[in-house]
Amino acid sequence: MVSPILNVDSLTFAYPDTPDHLILRNISFSLKPGEALGILGPNGGGKSTLLKILVGLLKPYKGKVGFNGKPVEDFRTQIGYVPQTANLNTVFPLRIIDMIHLQPEKKEKIKDVLNLVGLSGKEEKLYSELSGGEKKRALLSLALIKAPKILILDEPTAGLDTSGIDQLLNLLSRLQKEFQTSVVIVDHNINQVLKHCDQILCLNQTSHWHDEKDYLTKNIIESIYHCEFEHLLIHEKDEISEHHFCASDHKGEKK
Amino acid sequence: MNPWTALTDFFQYDFLLRALLGCIFVSVACGIVSPLIVAKRYAFMGTAVSHSTFLGLSIALSMVSSENPFLVFLITLGITLILVTGLAKATFRQKLPSDSLIGIFFTSSMGIGVIIHFLFARQRGDLLGYLFGNILLLENQDMILSLVLMLSLIPLFFIPFKKWLYVIYDEEGALVSGINVKFFHYLFFLVLTFLIVSALKLAGTVLIETLLLIPGVFSLKNGRNIKQVFIFSISFSIFSSVLGLYLANLWDLPSGATMAVTQLIILLGFLFVKKLKGGN
Fold first, then answer.
1. Alpha-carbon span B238 to B246, nearest angstrom
2. Residue B176 forms contact with A (CB below 8 Å)
3. Which residues in chain B have their CB less than 8 angstroms from residue A91's CB?
């Protein structure tokens, strides 16, 4: 039996200045090599917090996170982290090639990685002049140059069109199959996450659900989001530009 | 004054030659650090550090005579470093808006500095000279300090250059990649403090900020890649500061203020020409 690459055991988190306000409560799951875990949930549900704990930016309040039985500090060279583009400082005129050279651990050849993400021949282009999809792929190349055993992606499909999302998810599937890379995705795109990932973790602050994807029902998603599933899908397809309220939406708010 | 005489003065008078050399050394250091300050959005942080030197300086002048510049430098540096370490600690990956913290820090440290100077060191040094720079205050030791600073800055920035860039570009990504972001945060404050304290007499606590910002803004506006950014920044810093010093001598103006205004005029000139050519 293949042993998991990632083990999260009874993880609880609260910020030190507000120890009574739990952001995550008693979360446990594991991920095997080549598997993909999708993390879903409303804004403020703890998705990004969990991700920050996984990559070692925050310390758990209680519980354990282990990569192949080791703490994250001893596994950093094996973790590929793709942040949200919004968090990056692009004041410096960084070319794609400069960006990749920022990575201290370079195990793969730059040419191979750029080929893999479809940015071959664009090494000299400035990051700030890339399209949204190209930016995502450039960030992915920065993570992939480490030849990571686990890829952790923060909202990788945000700002991408349908074909961009397909290309990105196909690339992730290829990494999973060919290199047995495990993938953790935090995303708002429920359809794509459900389609692509083997396991789903639904988070809404202290309540969560995690099990085999096939057992995930509409009711569970509704209870996590406090919102009708169809409502979420409408938002996802961008058929309406502004938020609207539905029957079970956000109790106490104006309808 | 005759423009030619204003130029040859630099090789006839020791204090002007010291000012010229000190100016070149400080300009190289400012040229290296400036793009990092601008890109990291630490302009206000630079102001805090430069103003906090005032407290260090007041305490130093209360303890020793200004005729002992090296001791004044050491005490100022030591006290400023203690203050700045607190600032670095308070601003490292904090949720609180650091601009309020920085504002409180630099106004209060400057206020205490003025009181200490008023009470204990009024007769021991002209504070105005330290506020706006006065090349007449420069000694051989100041020049040597500037040279040592410039020479130590080059390896400090260029050996772990990619790490500096990574920390600025994506702090969290750099942390995940195993880079000691905290070390670079503190090192940045340390370098900034050294630079500002050693440039006190040349540019002053208030005007050094200009020399730390304008080369970075200029180079980031014009550089097409990282190498160009640093070459432009260092070249601009040296050229504009030396020109400013020359003009200060030519028209008998205060050195720090003339250097700052010269840099600003060159920057605005470039931006204007760029705009005319249709650039951003």
1. 12
2. yes
3. 38-39, 41, 168, 220
Instruction: Please check whether residue B259 is in contact with residue B244, taking contact to mean a CB–CB distance below 8 angstroms.
Output: yes
Q: State how far the Cα of A221 lies from the Cα of A218, in Å rounded to an integer.
A: 5
Sequence-distant (6+) residues with CB within 8 A of B222 are B228, B232, B270, B274
**Beta strand pairing call for A182-186 and A150-154:** parallel
ipTM above 0.90, yes or no: no
* Residue the block writes with tokens 């600025």: B168
For the whole prediction, is pTM greater than 0.90? no
pLDDT tens digits in sequence order for chain B, 280 residues long? 788 898 899 999 988 998 899 899 989 999 999 999 999 888 888 888 888 898 998 999 889 887 787 888 889 999 999 999 988 888 887 665 567 878 888 889 989 998 998 888 777 666 777 877 777 777 888 888 888 888 888 888 888 999 999 998 888 888 888 899 999 999 999 989 988 888 888 888 878 888 999 999 999 999 988 999 999 999 999 999 999 999 999 999 888 889 999 999 999 999 999 888 876 5
The Cα–Cα gap between B138 and B131 comes to 14
